């Protein structure tokens, strides 16, 4: 194949990429950073880590660029299994509380090792800390902080049973680097210290044999 044909094909491909409406451009990224309402209805953006999509004008925290997907319309985003933001309401409808809390719960389940506060979660979920706290407790029966603690303790139980890791290492692995706090919380939730829990499970296992 001649160089001229190769060049023509490359130019054609480049042209298609530049004109792909679903591709992130510097212009679109700047619109997201600036919360530019003039771009509303020209495109929508979704954040892969949260499963939420927004209007360009959304006042939520600016996501990492590599986690953003661009859609021409809300229908495309919904079809890709993203849920509308509670703050900017890209579908002009209110996301049901149960769906919103399900998204937050899923995020906690996947990221409990990270430092998670009510403010951080509210920012990620595009809502206020007060509304998140109230809505989460209404749907789940416990607060977001209590749920995070529950997930971390359950993860610690698995590590205590299935590994020989030191208690301090386990506390780090489940997102609680403060070992004394981890031990106190674990005992509060289970009635035993991590060491006691491990010992009891080992005895129980031997008895089963």
Arrangement of strands in the largest sheet: 3-1-2-4
Mean pLDDT: 85
How large is the count of helical segments?
Answer: 10
Q: Determine Rg (CA atoms, Å).
A: 23 Å
Helix-strand makeup class = alpha+beta
Taking pLDDT < 50 over at least 5 consecutive residues as the criterion, the unreliable ranges are 1-19
**Percent in strands:** 5-15%
DSSP summary, beta strand count: 4
Name the overall outline: elongated
Which series of helices and strands comes N to C?
A: HHEEEHEHHHHHHH
The proportion of residues forming helix, as a percent range, comes to 55-70%
Q: N- to C-terminal separation?
A: 72 Å
The biggest beta sheet is recorded as: 4 strands, mixed
Would you give an account of this structure?
With 209 residues, this protein is of the alpha+beta class. Helix content is 57%, strand content 6%. It is built from ten helices and four strands, in the order ααβββαβααααααα. It has helices at residues 3-18, 26-34, 74-79, 97-111, 118-125, 129-140, 144-162, 167-173, 179-190, 194-208, and strands at 44-47, 52-54, 68-71, 83-84. It has a four-stranded mixed β-sheet with strand order 3-1-2-4. A hairpin with a 4-residue loop joins strand 1 (44-47) and strand 2 (52-54). Helix 5 crosses helix 6 (129-140) and helix 7 crosses helix 10 (194-208). It is elongated, with a radius of gyration of 23 Å. 26% of the residues are buried.
